Amino acid sequence: MIVAGRAWSHFTLGDVLLLRDFLEMRRAVEVGTAARFGATLLGGVMLLAWFESPAQSQTSQGANSLPPVTVDAPTQQTIHRTPSKRDASRVRSTSRRVTAPGALQAEAVAAQSQPSRSGVVPPFAGGQVAQGARLGLLGNTGTMKSPFNVTSYTDKFIRDQQAATGADALILDPSVRSSHPTGGVLDSFYIRGFPVNEGNNGEFAFEGLYGIAPTYRIFTDYVERIEVLKGPSAALSGIAPNGGVGGVINVVPKRAGEDLTRFTVDYGSAARFGGHWDVARRYGDSKEWGVRASGSLRDGDTPIDRQSETTGVGSLALDYQGERYRSWLYLIAQTDRFDAPSRPFLMAAGVPVPKAPDGRLNVTQPWEWSRINDQSVLWRNEYDVTDQVTLFADVGGSRTNVERFFGLPTITNTRGDTTSTPQFFGLSIDRHTYDGGVRARFDTGFVRHAVTFQASVYHDELYRRLTNGTLVTSNIYSPTVAPTQFANEIAGRPRLSDSQLTGLSIADTLSVLDERVLLALGVRRQGVEANNYVSNVGTLANSYDKSATTPVVGLVVRPRDNVSLYANYIEGLSKGDIAPQQTGVSNGGEILPPYIAKQYEAGVKVDFGRVATTFSAFEISKASGETLAGRFGATAETQVRGLEFNVFGELRPDVRVLGGVSLLDGTLTKSAITSRVGNTPIGVPNVQANVGAEWDLPWARGLTMNGAVIYTGRQFVDADNKQPIPDWTRLDLGARYTTAINGRKTVFRANIQNVTGTTYWSSVASFGTFFLGAPRTYLVSMTVDM
């Protein structure tokens, strides 16, 4: 295996160098219909909220306690720390606040944005989502005080779903759809009708920073929260490395809170076994030192024919929580190895998309494979100059090494015949990120301010070598096995691209009337330097150095404690598309100037005490590239208007609900190809709906049943809207049993995905590849807290 070593040479901090050895380890309903739906829903929610008594959000202890059906659960030990000598109401840093375990519910409203020692905002009633999330530059913000639609999924929800990856964990978010195949090497998404994480630079944020998380897939072993901030966020989070503007997926890593020793063994069909460990400890007189180590090993055959997967994950989180100085160090190493990985399909022009085959069938040859290794590190630091002023600095990076040998099948006719040319692909990706700044809180008269200034640098370098095999034919309904081919690797990986993204940003959240009115104002000056090189050669083909200013304005008005009206205007920024290097394109390899995306959004959030809802309406527009008369240029524009409704919490103490619906009206508003104007963009359905529920059975103490229904409307795989894939619905069912064995809390979980065995095309990527939906899959596990 070839692993590029260039990335780590940029690190000058001795601590990072010392750790190097470890790291080696449908169209939416017509607009009038949508508007009527929105008006009705909004009116109903507001009426319910107005007559409801003011909500009392859940305290961290209430949200964290086990459901009443838990049998003989051992009492959790609470960490006590030395009280601070300073006034707690003058918060010096949102990342170090601690919610008191015995706080009254009424007080928890004011404490929503206060993370616990483990670094996360407390969960909402039901424990599936949190009471707030990170808003990039604005930091941790309570849901009711946020001018954006954001959802944070908890570790408990992730474990109960037996979600192995970030894509699995986001299955019940109605604004998000995975745009990758089950059993594939990449987790990519559509958020609000725009692609995210399609490319080789990686667009998962990690603790709010790009360039740290593994490039292609996030495994949940090291995840405490997965947060989804919906909509563009250049001013808040910076430009996304692949140009995604639909939203930001942020990984909040596990860190030491209460002492924990947890082991899990699991099994997934057809014959895949695994084990997971999670250990946390705190040390010192005031428990100021923390360590948390977690990881897993899984191996075996998947439910997809001829496919096997081996994954290994190791992570370590160290932290120091002093009186004024705080520091965190995160280390992640993961490997993901596939034999016969699932691949997306291309469709020959003018040919209708055939009916989807059985999800177990696999046209990938048994001798095709993929090997991906990731190593990541992040060192974060904070220092309180005063009670109101905090300095911060972060440094980190990641390295990804890819070696793979497989093709991209093209379906050539309605009989399902395919052609594919296997290709050896050797890729090295090195990324670094640095940022620093100051946070300050102060008053000007009756106006309170929370100001953040930040300077940031992100840099990536990609090196790639491609070689081709020979053509293979098969059929989606009756896959054939072709004679074995071997990867033809040539030494050396020429530079493919590099980029540097720099930013200077400032944001101020102004609040009055005891935070009844909050106004967030921010701006980021973003520099974009990009170089593109000739494939397999490494000579410079094109470059540019551009800059742009992106603002953000967000308003929250809280007429009642449990009602928030919000609105925002925010822009997204993307690196320009690269003209394809192919026959008929005269400017192949040219990088287009950066694109600016614009979002307008308004909505209402209502907290009914143990159930919360969010209704939002938005419009996002963004330019894109297309080829006309032999030249590739930024002459197209996509606009997506949408209505979103989310609900989460407890309908009653033994019934929990999570889900919602998203109505999307996607339109190509501009195109040099006039016949496409007014068409639906590739991959954008008109409806996305999810509903998940859990029920603690009253006659079987400790037993919980759960289920989910997922629906996605029709999508197009071509810009001319002549090749649709039909809508689909999937049913998932499961159960878990919580008990104690020898005094140790033990949880048995069983889930069946796609219970009915529905065959369907699941999703479409922005460049027109589409994917086969998952077959019926069985998952079982046993978790023991020692």
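The above is record 1. Record 2 follows with the same two-line structure.
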Amino acid sequence: MTATDPATTPGQPVPLDPSLAPPGTRNFRDAGGIPADRWHADQNGETLVPTHCCFCGVQCGMYLRVDRGGKVFGVEPRNHDINRMRLCPKGINAYQQVNHPDRLTAPLMRRNRDEEFREVSWDEALDHTVAEIRRIQGEYGNDAFGLLGGASLYSEKTYLVGKFARVALKTRHVDYNGRLCMVSAAGANKLAFGIDRAGNPFSDILLTDCLLIAGSNVGECFPVMTQYLWGARDRGATLIVVDPRETAIARTADIHVALKPGTDSAFFNAVLHVVVAEGLTDEAYLAAHATGWEEVRKTVADYPPARSARICGVPEEQIVQVARMFAGAGKAMAWHARGVEHHSQGVENCLSIINLCAATGNIGRPGAGYGTITGQGNGQGGREHGQKSDLLPGGRSITNPEHRRQICEIWGIDESELPPAGTSMMEMVWQMQRKEIRGLVGICNNPFVSLPHYATVKDGYDTLQFHAQFDFFLSETAANAHVVFPVTVWAEDEGVMANAEARVVKHNKAQEPPAGVRTDTWVICELARRLGAGDKFDFPDSRSVFEELRVASAGTVNDYYGITYERLEETGGIAWPCPSTDHPGTPRLFEDGRTYHPDGTIHLQVVEWHPPMDPYSEEYPLSLTTGRTVAHFLSGNQTRRLGALVEQTPRPWVEVHPSHGFRNGDPVRVVTRRGSEVFPALVTEAIRPDTVFVPYHWPVPTAANALTIDALDPRSKIPEYKVCAARIEAAPHIDEVPAPPTAPGHQAYPETQVSRTDPLPPTSPQGRGTAERS
């Protein structure tokens, strides 16, 4: 602080005229307080580094505050056109990860899981990892080793993950945790449109006349996106929310459809049935721009409102209202998220919404279209450039001979060296159990919390002969590994991400990493060098990787060639495809009426509803559904150590309807066919009586995903997180929330531990409040 009055000495009483002082301020001033108007803030040497949040697919702009010593110490919102000065609780606290006392700062290693971790040199950790890779592959074949990446990595790193697996490890087994995110939407988009991304930018929401949000708790999972919903409402748009819970957004909707979990496609087929029956389809649009419409029309004829109302547990008249409201709007949009996609028929659920949009002509116009809200920061970009088991860079298919030839030419390898398609993340765990995969490297993921059916996951990982994990905190999964590589957080490196709009944005480096920490890029390239593939991984930094990524994507549907770091700095983001450096990008798809299929049409798909994979019974009569909270992110490894977020939401709870007779805080045991856990009750009328909800950010013994089923969608291979059969019962005590794992010589950060033991659920952020029972 710098005094503007040289006569004032800090720390000394300030003379004042009592007649000029507000009542009650004399004691404060005499104790050494200084009048605010005589001082101004002056943080000498402070730098504001423009970047983006590390969390969800909105990708809010922010400034990281860096002190004169080069350390990140705070955050400021940025007037980026994505978020316009707004940040959510996670974004406000994200900077605290950077210099957190729990950061890993040296490689950890042990020869077997019975030993304690010890800190080792980078050479020892790398040499041991390479030796284990060679041993396992030499004994069991290349495909006995696998690699799992993550959708919170920069796109440059996801490109390296896929290339490293196929060129250095020479294995077909590579996938990523975006498999747990929006691959059902990706599959539906590719089938219908020939391209995998949202059709419209967020700004189009402001222009719509009717907005449909399905399976997305926008207010908690994507809080800053709420501004677009309110902007649409301000200009008169109607709002339809389809969700089993009355979320904060649902509470304000014109229509809230509280359907039974697992019945989405039955509902949307019935809506389309009404649209057809009442003559509300856009037949001219369908004739000019779609194929498969007659087959779809015949199918939805079998879903009259009365039938679907029984399946979905909603009023028949509500289905009719939704149909008239959506089809009768001049411009209508539909956005959805995991609530629609996390199902054994997730692809079909998404297709049923696409069918509705196309049948009403709501595709490719300002304020009219379709999109998916990505969960992870790089949920969109993370699957575009090769870490998904069936894709090569640029969204190329690994089964397409021409696509394989193109990538082999860029990578400088023979076509015979490129492995075939691998399996999905959950299938890889099953292969671990069967000892088909015996070694694994994991990067930017925490399957011990994020994958369903924890007992199966733990067994699969325990069966591995060798497991290495990259992370900046010791996650529950890393704590089970043989080697842990300490890597940078997002603020210690630069790179790009693609948000839910497919807008590519640039993250900038704000500080140097701690001594002993390396970038993911450095570790991947160093492992490749020691495996004998160093000539294919001569990348000193992210920028050099991005230049190869641009070339590798050129001419594809996912074309990044025209995007450069310099253009991103200048524009604030460019939507792909962007084929040349003078191309403005493509924020809105299908404006010319053409899709990315060779014939240019929308390929409408027939959808039939089928029940969830976990059958209901007298023993398991309820639906368990899971989701996120505003204070935490995914597996919680990034947020369960940040004090303000832990204080806000210290533990999971079970949301139950008052009809079950529990009071807030009562211990309630949730039982499924996979096991049981006890949570405090949050009693609310904002959930269906036949449904219970548990947030999933915590590990066992408070892990929602210890209870969920590992059934998969047959096309997208996404797990059915959003519905499984369950029952609830009274219990004697609540299961305790474990502290996050810590490295040797570290203790759990005390500021984040106190509130974990609070036995009560947090105050309900959604719904109509809580209901007590005397």
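The first helix runs from residue 26 to 30.
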